[in-house]
């Protein structure tokens, strides 16, 4: 199981961006993190997200805490993950 940490690539599980990949930029508290796509890459805006609404992947980008969208995008390009970030994931909605 991957952990919640700065630079971790995650998949959004809910909302209009469900199935899109994002990168954790900052950890706000025990329940919330700041994520970004960046928007021009995966369509995810920089925003606060509940950690129960994201699923961490095994991929990690080497970024500083609070890195700008340009820095995040540069690191993603550097590590050759552009196509990986653009891929959409089919999200299974849990039945309650």
UniProtKB/TrEMBL annotation:
Keyword Ribosomal protein applies: yes
Record Pfam families: KOW
Family annotation (Gene3D superfamilies): 2.30.30.30
Keyword list, A-Z: Ribonucleoprotein, Ribosomal protein
GO terms, biological process: ribosomal large subunit biogenesis; translation
One GO location term (cellular component): cytosolic large ribosomal subunit
Any one Gene Ontology molecular-function term assigned to this protein's record: RNA binding
Keyword Ribonucleoprotein: yes
Bilayer-spanning residue ranges: none
Domain (KOW): residue spans on this chain: 6-35
PANTHER family membership: 60S RIBOSOMAL PROTEIN L14 (PTHR11127), LARGE RIBOSOMAL SUBUNIT PROTEIN EL14 (PTHR11127:SF2)
Family note: Belongs to the eukaryotic ribosomal protein eL14 family.
Protein name: Large ribosomal subunit protein eL14
Species in which this protein is naturally found: Metallosphaera hakonensis JCM 8857 = DSM 7519
Gene behind this protein: rpl14e
């Amino acid at each position: 199981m991957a952990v919640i940490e700065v630079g971790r690539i995650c998949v959004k599980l809910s909302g209009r961006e469900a199935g899109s990949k994002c990168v954790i930029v900052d950890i706000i508290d025990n329940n919330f993190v700041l994520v970004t796509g960046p928007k021009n890459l995966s369509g995810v805006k920089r925003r606060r997200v509940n950690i129960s609404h994201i699923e961490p992947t095994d991929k990690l980008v080497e970024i500083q805490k609070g890195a700008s969208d340009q820095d995040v995008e540069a690191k993603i390009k550097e590590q050759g993950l552009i196509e990986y970030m653009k891929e959409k994931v089919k999200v299974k909605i849990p039945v309650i």
